[in-house]
Amino acid sequence: MKPAEYYQRDRTLHPPAYAPDYKTSVSRSPRLPLISLQNSASEITGPVFGHRDIDPLDNDLVRNFPHGGDPVGERIILHGRVLDENARPVPKTLVEIWQANASGRYRHRKDTYLGALDPNFGGCGRTLTDENGYYFFRTIKPGAYPWRNWVNSWRPAHIHVSVFGAAFAQRLITQLYFEGDPLIPHCPIVKTIPDPEAIEQLIARLDLNATIPLDAIAYKFDIVLRGRRSTLFENRLEGN
């Protein structure tokens, strides 16, 4: 199999690994230059995911937690398309999300924030894109929460997104924010991104056309895998 030609990563769009104002990057950032590796057969071949791996409720975070009650908070629709660098749809791609609940608390034993733990919300979902690269989730809009970066640091409302490519080793991770959130420009993590346009590409836009009346407000977030208009990913390696 001949490997596909990939767009090189534009490092001017991406934040530096070492950003002292984002305190945890100090201990996690590499001290030596990164090494760019060419894709091998393990990165460009299967296994891949199929419809049998997805439950019908996996993309509905309002209903997919087994307790069966209604979660608290604002119901939203998150939808969009996964596209390649030339705006072509990427079908049959696994998209996963995870998030805090409406009070800003994750369902995780290490999350000790005093926000209420919703007994009817798990905060995780997944789906496969269709033939047009389209994905769709119904969920609860997450709340902001404090974190120990500075004395009064708060994370904006955000949802973590994982995208698997054409092979199991091809996984990209990012997080999206919501249009109009006043905390976005104050977030130390967001501030590490040097390009304002790259920040804009991480913001899900209000989409009243896709809103479900009397049920859920919609936000649209397209995921672009490569190229000059690519979505910013947290774990992207050069050449991928």
Automatic annotation (TrEMBL):
It comes from the Bacteria. It is an enzyme of class 1 (oxidoreductase). Keywords: Dioxygenase, Oxidoreductase. InterPro entries: Intradiol_dOase_C (IPR000627), Intradiol_dOase_core (IPR015889), Intradiol_RC_Dioxygenase (IPR050770), PCDO_beta_N (IPR024756), Protocat_dOase_b (IPR012785). Its EC number is 1.13.11.3. Residues 7-39 form the Protocatechuate 3,4-dioxygenase beta subunit N-terminal domain. Residues 44-227 form the Intradiol ring-cleavage dioxygenases domain. GO terms for biological process: 3,4-dihydroxybenzoate catabolic process. Residues 1-25 are annotated as: Disordered. SUPFAM superfamilies: Aromatic compound dioxygenase (SSF49482). Coiled coil: none annotated. GO terms for molecular function: ferric iron binding; protocatechuate 3,4-dioxygenase activity. The keyword Repressor does not apply. The keyword Hydrolase does not apply. Belongs to the intradiol ring-cleavage dioxygenase family. This is Protocatechuate 3,4-dioxygenase subunit beta. It comes from Paracoccus onubensis.
